[in-house]
Amino acid sequence: MNYTRLRIWFIITFTLAVIAIVIRAIWQIVVIPTPSTMLIFIPLIAALIGMNTLFAYFVIYPEKLRSMPFITGVTFALTAGLVAGVTHFIRFIISPEADPFWSKVIGWLIVLSSISAYLLILNIIWSFRKKKSHG
Hints:
Number of strands: 0
Structural class: mainly alpha
Radius of gyration: 18 Å
Order of helices and strands: HHHH
Distance between the termini: 36 Å
Number of helices: 4
Largest sheet: none
Shape: globular
Number of domains: 1
């Protein structure tokens, strides 16, 4: 089996999905060009492009998963994604669309789980890096 073709196929498949989401995010900025929209979608676009780049890097060079540039890139992409999510949550919770009580409960649960997952992932990523540098 030719792994090069399979790797290219993985990269193309993931990139097509990312391009679609980035186009939708840019469209949202064009349609509603407010500062709060830009605070949500610009970090989201950065996170998506970063994750796509990291995915391609992982597929091409799987042996370099523990390198400092890779770990820093993952951290940057996760941070940008979390910033976009929290900004969206803050914007949503004060909007009239969040009138039903359960919308606010769901929103809080999602943002709390996102922050928890973010901290957990950072802890795991950086603990692997710390173990590698000490041992």
